[in-house]
Amino acid sequence: MKAYWQLTLAQLRIFGRNRQVLFFTLLFPIILMLTLGSFLGNSGGTTISMDVIDHDGSPESQQLISTFKKNQAIEVNKTKDVKAALEELKQDDYQVVMEIPSGYGESLQSGQSKPVELPVYYNETNAQASQLGLTVVNAAVDQVSKNIENYSPVVAVQPKGVRSLDLGYIDFLVPGIVAMMIMNNNMNGVAGQISAWRERGILRRMQGTRLKASTFISAQITARVILNGLQALLVLIVASLLFHVQVNGSWLALLTFVILGTLAFMAIGFIIAGLAKNPESAGPIAGFASFPMLFLGGVFFPINDMPEYLQPFVNILPISHLSTALRETMNVGTSFFELWPHWLTLAGWLTVSFFIASRTFRWE
């Protein structure tokens, strides 16, 4: 037992003395979170930016502009220069630019049968945003026409809102950052460290002592669980202070998934360390395995948005289950037992990987 604690403390000291390890395990994830969170953290809804040039200035035109302003999906800006507005439209400052022509109010008062045409400009190079803008604007104009004609619908929609969580991209990102840290620290870290110790003869000297392999592995696990727990706590504190990210679920469930993820990726790291001939080859092998998982495992992008032909492959990746489980626990507050597919998959990766690692592990 004494050897176990000594090895655990020695491993933690190694982490603390290596500045590169501290940077890439503690500071880099926080810097990444701050960078992405500052730019995309509040991107929870969609707003159409619209510029209106009112050449008429009548009460009817003011009423039309007021209708647009009441729509929460439209951000209205009023200018007088059409050319300047079109230049800003080309730079994607606006999704649509609309002109209200002179005589708009008089045409409505005269009750003419011919509809009044409102020129609406959109950027053809940004088709998705432009089509969304045109749809919202057309719906608002159509409602104005119906109000003028006293249109009475035969079939009506009865809107019933469902209250949902007020989540932004930062709430999606933070659990992914925690999952990314666990993967990098354990899969990449274990592979590089164990292969380096083997090359320097440290593992051979350990084998020559009375130290048991189980004691050595247990100390590695304990040290890395402590490190990952402190990392996750630090990231959550920073996210809470700066972006008001909350943990809506159980902290115990969150810690359990951190431990499960640590063990699963440690086991994969031991496999890579056993296959690698030297530290120089361990790094590229670990990078080859981890790099695709960063983009396919739901760290930065939702898994459901990925192509269907990738879904079967994505759904077996350990990081996809880890990031989803952390996200469900933090954002939704889902209980640990309801997330059984995720912890069962992580446990399966842990069991199979440690079995393979026991076959491929070499002391020298």
Structure in words:
This protein is mainly alpha-helical and 364 residues long. The chain has 2 domains: 2-42 and 167-360, no CATH class; 48-148, 3-Layer(aba) Sandwich (abc type-2 transporter like fold), CATH 3.40.1710. Helix content is 66%, strand content 6%. It has 14 helices and 4 strands. The chain has a 4-stranded mixed sheet, sandwiched between helices. Helix 3 (59-70) links the parallel strand 1 (48-54) and strand 2.
Total count of helical runs of at least 4 residues: 14
Instruction: Report on the biggest sheet.
Output: 4 strands, mixed
Helix proportion? 55-70%
Tell me the radius of gyration: 29 Å
**Average of per-residue pLDDT values:** 81
User: How many distinct folded domains?
Assistant: 2
Strand content: 5-15%
Q: Unreliable stretches, pLDDT < 50, 5 or more residues?
A: none
What's the end-to-end separation, in Å?
A: 25 Å
What is the number of beta strands?
4
Q: What series of H and E elements makes up the topology?
A: HHEHEHEHEHHHHHHHHH
Describe the global form.
elongated
Lateral strand order in the biggest sheet:
2-1-3-4
Give the class from helix and strand content and strand pairing.
mainly alpha
Q: What does this entry show, briefly?
A:
With 364 residues, this protein is mostly helical.
